[in-house]
Amino acid sequence: MENQESKKSFGYEKTAIYMFIMSLAASGFNYLFQIASGRLLDASAYGVLNASFSVVGIVTVAGVALGMSLAKNISQDASNIGGIIKRLFRLGIVVALPFILAVFAVMLVMGYELITSVLTAVTTYTISLSYLFYGSLQGKQLFWQVSIFNLIVPLSKMLFGTALLFAGAGINSVLCAMIAGSFISMVYGYLVLVKRADFSAHASKEECARIIKYMFFTLLSASALTLFNNVDVLLIRQYFSAKELGLYSCAALFGKIILYIPTVLVTMMFPIAAKNDGKSKTTLYKTLLYSFLISSVAAAALYVLRRPVISIVMGQSYLPSADYILFVILFVIPLVMVTVVTNYLIATNDKWFASAACFSAAVLMLVLTYFFHMSIPAMLGIIAVIYFVLFVVLLIRGILKK
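Request: output the structure for the sequence above.
Response:
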């Protein structure tokens, strides 16, 4: 028995190392694109581009929640994956349209150009649908294939987006590259799953209704997590100038790499915790420990090397953004830990507490930053404190959960 547990533990670490390497590759492609776009665009245009990314990230939260619901249900019963994906894909094509039209309208109200508004809406549409395949791969615990899936959009963005930017196509070219990448990822997901699932099968309304019901339960906490990942850029866009947004976006570009690295551990933890329904907390503790260690080492290296890295990679004009790095680190590390525990609670059916805690923290953050946004560091300090308190609350809940 002890030998079996040892093998399982080694399997967790072995797969995590592989996924970590693939995650580094995906982050590398993403950051190479960000570096290229930072050099090819001025600070104002670069800030607008990153604000567009934040809009896409927030709006696709319904897709994220659907992927989480699929991962949980498939991890417990994978007998009819093909029929479920087919039915939900058809349903998603129709149901998502009103939300996409709303994105288009919001983008116009925010002052974006017509073509940018259209492309942002289409980008959110295709990325949301791609989460059907992502969640299915995750639920089947096909972690190597999940890693490749996660590599496709950053690679597409770097190759196609950078080429079009260099040709003078502007920020809209990046959205086109993301649309292409999401289509390619869906095709890849289908090709992987078609060997393991019967897509000629039919799913009942009851099966899909169960998944959609769980999706709505997790939507609030998933929305909060997505907001947490993007709210800093959106708040700075709201309260500060385009130039300050561009400089901060540079700092966030490097600081938020800390968020992406431990994501592979959360991806592995979710279906494992869902399958055993939280009866064993070993995976949670491992994920928290490894996430904290990786985040801390990355944060320390970034802080020490912040000025030469920014100067060499982005150029002297972005050097003032180094002053924001410490404040980004202070909120990113507790956010990593919040992400881990929230995903654990959702996977183990404690979605109400996770949703209420995350939603309350999000509302508190918006209220406090509205009244206290005298400077970017002050606003980031408020965000950091809220994340830390939220992590403590969620962790206590996770430990006490039976």
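The chain is about 85% helix and 0% strand.
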